[in-house]
Write a structure and sequence with these properties.
The chain is mainly alpha-helical and 460 residues long. Helix content is 29%, strand content 5%. It has a two-stranded antiparallel ribbon with strand order 1-7. A two-stranded antiparallel ribbon has the order 2-3. Helix 2 runs antiparallel to helix 6 (233-239), helix 2 (83-94) packs across helix 7 and helix 4 packs across helix 7 (251-263). The longest helix is centred in the C-terminal third of the chain and has 14 residues, at 413-426. The chain starts with a strand and ends with a helix.
């Protein structure tokens, strides 16, 4: 029997010498902002800090490219990013008509990739567990989506671990919390565990593998009939002109288009990114002080680094799982221990037990649920958890906990507040809706198309 956690409670969650007006970037919808290009003493201190932690590279080390700057976006050599692929992938990602392989017939065309990864929640799910087929409702940012209790439990597509964001996935070579998707780089040497992941053997990176495997796991269906019935034939033809026509309207091409789109979903209009590019008004003084702590005493940058503020490693921080809450029911599932073991559940190596991939920190506040098990409901909770160094999960052996978790740093209340402000506000891109289509070809409601979501989303 499949062990899943069904949540009954969904957590809702300075002066300057020279001013000029310039747009944020070419995606900013012609919105202009007032920009200060003269650094203050506080800016200079932060710039010096960035130089010191990057061996002199400075802001460029952390700067994200524009979303249409394909040449500078990390990509899979087997799936070059093109404008036509991105346009197709953007629609397919949100298209509820892709929900064409449900276990319960009444759920046909009611869900999509974006059901668990939508802009309102920073491209995460907005609740503790993402729900695809068998979910009802949306709320404001996904917090209102719940298990439809008239659907058999076995038919529900509900995640046994918190849905990660797709923001900055271009900077990951493997995907999922345990990193099992991806046939290059980080996963070199794990080939013995790829039995059920043939896409890894092709050599695709994690983003592409997840876009392919996700269609199977989450009961999506893209084929020739789909392309014809919902008006996508032309877009597939333009995106994949070199693919034989008999192979052009398939799960494979759909997955590659979705992956190309996902790689362009970058929070490059966040205040932090604007500051890195020379707009010294973009961050408040408190956020700048928080950033200095982030890259200094708090040691956040030790794991959260580079343009995406993540890394390619896995850490045991002792955070709780889905069954560590009185608000969830645990159903019998022989596979759940592997989920709880994180990277070790994939590699089968005890040294990897309870280790999970470092997440990006952008737009955390939009989601409101944190930790792989969704056991935190505020950024401050997570910061204080790290500073306290006391594990939630008693199953994790003390010797398995990473030294950066147990290497406690003392911060004052004011310092913690500034650090939280930087993470919540400085790293929040306020304009993620630019990555969402105005409409999808089917004309359906999206990201969900069940009757309750239609009401919540104003589609009915």
């Amino acid at each position: 029997m499949k062990k899943l956690l069904l949540c009954f409670t969904i957590f809702a969650l300075l002066s300057c010498e020279k001013d000029e007006y310039i747009p944020l970037d070419n995606e900013a919808n012609d919105t202009a902002i007032k920009t200060n290009t003269t650094p203050s003493d506080l800016d200079i201190k932060l710039l010096n800090k960035l130089d010191s932690v990057t061996d002199g590279i400075g802001p460029a080390f952390f700067t994200l490219p524009n979303s249409d700057d394909y040449a500078n976006i990390p990509q899979d050599p087997l799936n070059p990013i093109t404008l036509k692929k991105v346009a197709l992938g953007k629609l397919l990602f949100h298209e509820t008509a892709t929900g064409g392989n449900p276990k319960t017939a009444s759920n046909m065309a009611t869900y999509s990739c974006a059901s668990c990864h939508h802009a309102a929640a920073g491209f995460s799910s907005g609740n503790r567990q993402g729900i695809g087929e068998g979910g009802i409702g949306f709320g404001v940012k996904g917090e209102g989506r719940a298990f439809n209790n008239i659907i058999p439990v076995a038919d529900i597509d509900i995640q046994p671990i918190r849905s990660p964001t797709i923001l900055n996935v271009a900077y990951q070579d493997v995907m999922l919390w345990n990193g099992q998707f991806g046939g290059t780089g980080t996963n070199a040497g794990t080939e013995a565990n790829w039995t059920n992941i043939p896409e890894n053997f092709i050599g695709f990176q994690g983003v592409e593998v997840q876009a392919l495997k996700g269609q199977d796991v989450h009961r999506l269906l893209v084929n020739r009939d789909f392309a014809r019935d919902f008006g996508y034939r032309r877009m597939f033809n333009e995106a994949f002109p070199d693919v034989p026509r008999e192979e052009r309207f398939t799960r494979e091409t759909a997955g590659l288009a979705i992956a190309a789109y996902e790689r362009t979903v970058l929070p490059n209009q966040s205040p932090w990114q604007r500051w890195l590019k020379g707009d010294y008004n973009a961050l408040t003084n408190k956020e700048k002080r928080g950033a200095r702590l982030f890259f200094g005493k708090a040691k956040c940058f030790k794991c959260h680094t580079g343009p995406a503020l993540n890394d390619k490693n896995f850490y045991a921080l002792g955070m709780g799982d889905f069954d560590d809450s009185g608000n969830a029911i645990v159903l019998d599932d022989t596979g759940f221990p592997n989920v709880k073991r994180g990277r070790g559940g994939f590699t089968k190596k005890p040294r990897d037990y309870y280790k999970f991939k470092t997440p990006t920190l952008y737009n955390l506040i939009d989601n409101g649920i944190f930790g792989h098990g969704g056991t935190f409901t505020s950024v401050r909770d997570v910061v204080e958890y790290k500073l306290n160094g006391i594990p939630e999960n008693n199953e994790v052996p003390q010797e398995q906990l990473h030294r950066l978790f147990t290497d406690i740093q003392e911060l004052t209340e004011n310092q913690i507040s500034n650090l939280v402000l930087f993470i919540e506000n400085g790293l929040r891109d306020p304009n993620l809706m630019r990555y969402v289509p105005d409409q999808i070809n089917s004309g359906n409601c999206f990201p969900n198309n069940d009757p309750a979501s239609q009401v919540d989303l104003g589609c009915s």
